[in-house]
Write a structure and sequence with these properties.
mainly alpha, single chain, about 260 residues, about 0% strand, binds zinc ion
Length: about 260
């Protein structure tokens, strides 16, 4: 099995599991129908994937392979056991994504692009795939740069990318784990309930729980929020300036959103 088909099969398996769980045990009700939101969200995913492929045709793992053959980057210079350089690389990439996410909220010019993700009026697995192509382009360039500087092994890039996609599908899923499972899981992972706080319309709730996978970074850097003002059932999701209308879920609206008057 090639690297690409391995990744795609894991991706589609997790997506399928989340879609089945969401339709059997939905945590919240959407104001818009699935086809209306999904058409925009999945079209954006396809466009962003094309942009990423055009930008770095060999992929970030390809860049990692190139760096290792050329002896570029920290882990290609110092001599660490492979398991240790892979573990450290995955942790460092995840930490970088945490700060990247936080900075996309802090810097107004970057928020214009990231708000496309937050403007979804409902949150489900498809929201986890909805990012503006410019955000994806910036993100992939930053990742490639980090891979070159750190000399990240290609295996670590593949583990990280598969995990990041998987966790994004998991923590955006419209499900609510039973409390006996959810509470202990929070000590390690960003659960659906925690991530929905990040998608709340209340600004200081949006500016919390930035982690995509583990909850450690939020605890470490003071952005962890265990409880929103409203309960998970009543939480207002999305952005006030983008109400749940068909027009606001449309692909063209999503693409143009960063360039319209800041809201
Ligand atoms: Zn965010």
């Amino acid at each position: 099995m090639t690297d690409a088909s391995f990744r795609l099969s894991i991706f589609f398996t997790i997506l399928l599991v989340m879609l089945v769980l969401e339709s059997c045990y939905p945590a919240r009700k959407s104001k818009l129908t699935k086809p209306v939101r999904w058409l925009g969200n999945f079209s954006l995913l396809i466009l962003s994937s094309i942009v990423a492929r055009l930008l770095i045709p060999i992929g970030v793992a390809g860049i990692a392979l190139y760096a290792s053959t050329q002896g570029i980057g920290l882990f290609n210079i110092i001599n660490l056991p492979t398991w240790l350089s892979i573990t450290l690389s995955v942790l460092l990439l995840d930490l970088m994504i945490y700060w990247q996410h936080r900075i996309f909220h802090l810097v107004p010019m970057l928020w214009r692009f990231h708000k496309v993700h937050h403007a979804d009026s409902h949150i489900d697995a498809s929201t986890g795939l909805r990012f503006h192509p410019v955000e994806i382009a910036l993100s992939i360039l930053l990742k490639a740069l980090a891979v070159l500087i750190l000399g990240v092994p290609a295996t670590a890039v593949i583990i990280f990318e598969v995990a990041l996609n998987g966790f994004a599908l998991f923590n955006h899923a419209n499900i609510r784990l039973p409390r006996w499972l959810e509470l202990p899981l929070r000590t390690i992972l960003i659960t659906q309930v925690l991530h929905r706080i990040h998608h709340s319309q209340v600004v200081n709730e949006t500016n919390s729980n930035y982690g995509f996978s583990v909850s450690w970074w939020d605890r470490m850097f003071g952005s962890y929020k265990s409880q929103a003002q409203k309960s998970d059932e009543d939480l207002d999701i999305g952005l006030k300036s983008y109400p749940a209308t068909k027009k606001n879920a449309n692909l063209l609206t999503l693409l143009k959103m960063p360039f319209s008057r800041p809201k």
